[in-house]
């Protein structure tokens, strides 16, 4: 069947415009987020090492707690800053404070990496088997004002092992 309304001499019909809009609108909606994502670049990765226990005062500055060494990798072409860390998973039953080393903010240059420690301090350094999770806030402003990036979740298992953070 031929659509004669689209070929008459009075110009483009409403039917033709409506059909064109039906195809054009989904393409615009899908394409709109792409420039924003492309501008932010690649997200950093955080690779945790083996968690360990720090008993008593023997592992200063980690006092009675647990430590998770990690490497923060920045695959982007912009410097990133880790500006906040929150413990959001804790299956130990022990309350923890946070003592990141080095202190925040962490600066990771474009294309570079940084070795860090996520340290959970407590009044107890019991030999437990549990999980710790950290929500890591990052961006491209050292003062943390860049809130355009989703936090990175890092979750590790702290094994029931003898103390070894001081080695």
Task: Give a verbal description of the structure.
The chain has helices at 14-31, 33-40; strands at 45-48, 52-54, 65-73, 80-90, 97-98, 106-108, 113-121, 130-139, 152-158. It starts with 13 loop residues before the first helix and ends in a 9-residue tail after the last strand. Helix content is 16%, strand content 35%. It has 167 residues and is of the alpha+beta class. It is elongated. The model is unreliable at 1-9 and 17-38 (pLDDT under 50). The protein contains two helices and nine strands. The strands form two sheets. Strands 1, 2, 3, 5 and 7 form a five-stranded antiparallel sheet that branches.
Q: Overall 3D geometry?
A: elongated
Mean pLDDT: 78
Report strand %. 25-35%
Distance between the termini: 81 Å
| Cα-based radius of gyration, to the nearest Å | 26 Å
In terms of quaternary structure, the protein is single chain
Number of helices: 2
Uncertain runs with pLDDT below 50, 5 residues or more? 1-9, 17-38
Secondary structure class reads alpha+beta
- Largest beta sheet, briefly? 5 strands, antiparallel
**Can you count the beta strands?**
9
Q: Helical percent range?
A: 10-25%
H/E element order: HHEEEEEEEEE
